């Protein structure tokens, strides 16, 4: 019997795709883009918003049934809003990358909101964009890795492997437009049905709006990107160019030397000088210092507070300022004083851009620098030589030095104090704060305050050694406070309007040498009678100018907290009321 050879393969254009040895049939047509958008939006609106659902469940003004109703309503709103955005971008080359971007952003946002109880707004976005490698390293842990793996990596892998059914550009445009219109219509219906419930929650709990993930991140990023359209960020207007030195400089008194210690993450309530039950400031207790107990910050983060406190605007007007201006350090320099900025942190946020600056965070000083960062005492090393390198004609008039601390920067509080200053044990040595025992977390933070106490006391001793040549003084003020688990909130950076007081209540400590008191006619005894007077970062700009007897039209005596304790008119300035 003759064997017949098999018929030749038919043209694939007529019979469908060729079968490979690994396939048992033609490739499936794939999933429609609309269903991919729906599934991704459902995932983001539900699982990726666990921080929002947790917050709603804990709101005291919502009963169990109300919390469920509001949660369902918000889930629908978030899902429909996300689907509407994704439908606009549901094109062949953009759909998968955009959904992956949403998932990654949602995963990181979910972790930080769940782990630290923070919310994401414009200030938090600025903090994120300005975070350096040291701060990033302190935030990395296995919980973050696991969260990103589950919420972002796995969905992205599934999405990448999923075949998407392609359409012609015209049909895809029609489909995208129809999906957008449908989601908008449904969104209007949901908002109308649940408006009262949603509006009530948002009105009584404004922090909820900053938990809508990842739309909160995109909105915050958009607000940051829009700043150049609100004011010209490239322009810098002069400030205080009329600054001159006051009458105290005509006498033969020794020139002033003011050390401004810019604290990081200082909680006023954890300083024993302010009534705290633990001995966190034993060395300062031996000095004749003034510790203001009612001082408040301009913001809840370094990025917000430092530029604000060194500006003349004050908190109420800083964000809405029409343009960028020079700051405090520029005015001091205009007056002819020698100025120097030492930074052991992540930068001065623009406050020192036009003055001599030294970054001490990358030094290699044995015993003070280890693991890519330095303890704050490193700023005192070689300080005499650094000042001596400033222009002699300016030094002869007076010197202002800023020391920007690492302070109590979290979440790795245990890294902020050397072994010799770990007074409270055991301390939390984990940067995943929610896994720490509350007492261990408090111990680690308080140890950082003990070390700040030592830094300030050591600075005062250094200043005392300068008395034969100058009239020294010290002013310490923290940029913002910190949450240590109160109401399940950690770290800082909450929107100012909803931030807890511990993120805004800061220590303000002053030390004046006898020579400085005599020179400026300010008495420590008088200042100690005003320890509970309400003050804020708004007073800082004017108080420093007052201490240095700098006369300028931008100086406001009413905001100078020291002016009211001047016993004479040697400086030729009116006292504050």
Q: Strand arrangement, largest sheet?
A: 5-4-8-2-9-12-3-13
CATH class of the largest domain: Alpha Beta
Percent range of helical residues: 40-55%
Strand content: 5-15%
- Write down the overall mean pLDDT: 91
Oligomer: single chain
In the residues, how many domains can be counted?
2
Briefly note the CATH topology name of the largest domain: Alkaline Phosphatase, subunit A
Summarize the biggest pleated sheet: 8 strands, mixed
Number of DSSP-assigned strands: 14
CATH fourth-tier homologous superfamily of the largest domain: Alkaline Phosphatase, subunit A
CATH architectural type of the largest domain: 3-Layer(aba) Sandwich
Termini separation comes to: 121 Å
| Uncertain residue segments | 1-6, 8-24, 569-577
Rough outline: elongated
How many alpha or pi helices? Answer: 20
How much is the radius of gyration in Å? 30 Å
Descriptive report:
The chain starts with 11 loop residues before the first helix and ends in a 26-residue tail after the last strand. The chain has 2 domains: 28-227, no CATH class; 256-565, 3-Layer(aba) Sandwich (Alkaline Phosphatase, subunit A). With 577 residues, it is of the alpha/beta class. The model is unreliable at 1-6, 8-24 and 569-577 (pLDDT under 50). The protein has helices at residues 12-15, 33-46, 50-58, 64-88, 95-116, 122-130, 133-139, 142-161, 169-204, 215-225, 227-230, 302-309, 315-318, 328-334, 383-388, 392-395, 438-465, 514-520, 524-527, 540-547, and strands at residues 244-245, 256-263, 289-296, 338-343, 357-359, 369-370, 373-374, 399-404, 471-478, 483-484, 490-491, 505-512, 535-536, 550-551. A hairpin with a 2-residue loop joins strand 6 and strand 7 (373-374). Helix 3 packs antiparallel against helix 4 (64-88).
């Amino acid at each position: 019997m003759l064997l017949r050879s098999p018929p030749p393969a038919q043209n694939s254009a007529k019979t469908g795709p060729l079968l490979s040895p690994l396939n048992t049939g033609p490739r499936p047509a794939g999933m429609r883009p609309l269903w991919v958008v729906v599934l991704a939006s459902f995932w983001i609106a539900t699982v990726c918003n666990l921080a929002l659902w947790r917050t709603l469940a804990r709101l005291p003004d919502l009963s169990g049934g109300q919390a469920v109703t509001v949660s369902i309503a918000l889930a629908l709103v978030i899902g429909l809003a996300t689907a509407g955005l994704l439908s606009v971008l549901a094109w062949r080359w953009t759909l998968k990358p955009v959904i992956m971007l949403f998932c990654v952003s949602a995963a990181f946002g979910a972790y930080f909101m769940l782990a630290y109880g923070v919310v994401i707004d414009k200030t938090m976005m600025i903090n994120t964009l300005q975070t350096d490698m040291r701060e990033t390293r302190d935030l990395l842990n296995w919980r973050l890795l696991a969260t990103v793996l589950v919420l972002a990596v796995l969905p992205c892998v599934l999405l990448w492997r999923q075949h998407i059914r392609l359409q012609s550009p015209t049909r895809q445009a029609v489909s995208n437009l129809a999906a957008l219109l449908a989601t908008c219509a449904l969104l209007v219906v949901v908002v109308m049905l649940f408006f009262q419930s949603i509006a009530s929650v948002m009105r009584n709990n404004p922090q909820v709006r900053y938990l809508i993930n990842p739309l909160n991140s995109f909105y915050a990023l958009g607000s940051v990107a829009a700043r150049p359209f609100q004011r010209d960020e490239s322009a810098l207007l002069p400030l205080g160019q009329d600054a001159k030195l006051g009458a105290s400089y005509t006498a033969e008194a020794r020139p002033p030397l003011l050390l401004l210690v810019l604290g990081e993450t200082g909680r006023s309530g954890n300083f024993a000088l302010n009534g705290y039950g633990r001995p966190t400031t034993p060395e300062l207790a031996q000095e004749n210092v003034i510790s203001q107990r009612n001082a408040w910050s301009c913001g809840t983060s370094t990025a917000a507070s430092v530029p604000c406190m060194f500006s003349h605007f004050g908190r109420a007007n800083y964000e809405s300022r029409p343009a960028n201006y020079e700051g405090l350090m520029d005015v001091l320099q205009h007056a002819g004083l020698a100025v120097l900025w030492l930074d052991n942190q992540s930068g001065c946020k623009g406050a020192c851009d036009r003055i001599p600056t030294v970054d001490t965070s990358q030094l290699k000083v044995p015993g003070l620098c280890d693991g890519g960062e330095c303890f704050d005492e490193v700023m005192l090393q070689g300080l005499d030589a650094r000042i001596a390198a400033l222009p002699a004609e300016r030094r002869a008039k007076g010197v202002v030095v800023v020391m920007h601390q690492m302070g109590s920067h979290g979440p790795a509080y245990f890294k902020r104090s050397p072994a010799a200053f770990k007074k409270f044990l055991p301390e939390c040595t984990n940067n995943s704060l929610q896994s720490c025992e509350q007492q261990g977390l408090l111990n680690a933070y308080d140890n950082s305050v003990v070390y700040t106490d030592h830094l300030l006391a050591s600075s005062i001793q250094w200043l005392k050694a300068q008395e034969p040549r100058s009239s020294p003084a010290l002013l310490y003020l923290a940029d913002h406070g910190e949450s240590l688990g109160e109401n399940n909130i950690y770290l800082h950076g909450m929107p100012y309007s909803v931030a807890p007081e511990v993120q805004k209540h800061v220590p303000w400590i002053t030390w004046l040498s006898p020579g400085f008191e005599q020179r400026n006619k300010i008495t420590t005894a008088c200042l100690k009678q005003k320890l509970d007077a309400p003050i804020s970062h708004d007073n800082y700009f004017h108080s420093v100018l007052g201490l240095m007897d700098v006369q300028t039209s931008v100086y406001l005596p009413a905001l100078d907290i020291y002016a009211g304790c001047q016993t004479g008119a040697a400086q030729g300035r009116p006292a504050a009321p």
